[in-house]
Design goal:
- The protein is mainly α and 132 residues long.
- The chain has helices at 19-49, 52-62, 65-92, 105-131; strands at 97-98, 101-102.
- The protein is flat and about 80 Å long.
Length: 132
């Protein structure tokens, strides 16, 4: 009697077979950019604790062309991450009923993005006022 080998399903490139999974993996890849920005902030705090000269040298390095390009990539990744976060929100939260009608998913997504933008602008304004 012949012994049959067990079937092993190939997993190579599983996420490239479906556009949903491509978007999912792109959204998850933005976490790398979040970690990179957190590392930049952590190094900034460490440099600040080492004194003014160390912090000023670090800030001068952050103003280079390469770092400005890195910040542009970070902003683009954060914007995509924010959009996808709010796009998922209507699928993950309980239905919101207003006058016995279910609130449209687009309204939920748009309101989340709007509130995020408004809070960011308010924080930016508060920092500008406190810094001057």
């Amino acid at each position: 009697m012949a012994i049959r080998r067990p079937y092993v399903r190939p997993m190579d490139g599983w996420w490239r077979r479906d556009p949903f999974f491509i978007r999912y993996m792109a959204r998850e890849a933005t976490a790398v950019f979040v970690v990179a920005y957190a590392a930049i902030l952590l190094v900034s705090v460490v440099r600040l604790s080492r004194g003014e000269a160390s912090y000023d040298a670090w800030m001068a390095g952050l103003g280079s062309g390469a770092m400005i390009a890195a910040y542009a990539a970070l902003v683009a990744a954060f914007a995509y991450h924010t959009y996808t976060w709010f796009a998922i929100m209507p699928k993950t939260m309980p239905p919101i009923m207003i006058a016995r009608k279910r609130l449209a998913p687009g309204v939920i997504t748009a309101s989340g993005i709007l509130v995020s933008v408004l809070v960011s602008l308010a924080l930016f304004a508060a920092v500008r006022v406190l810094a001057s």
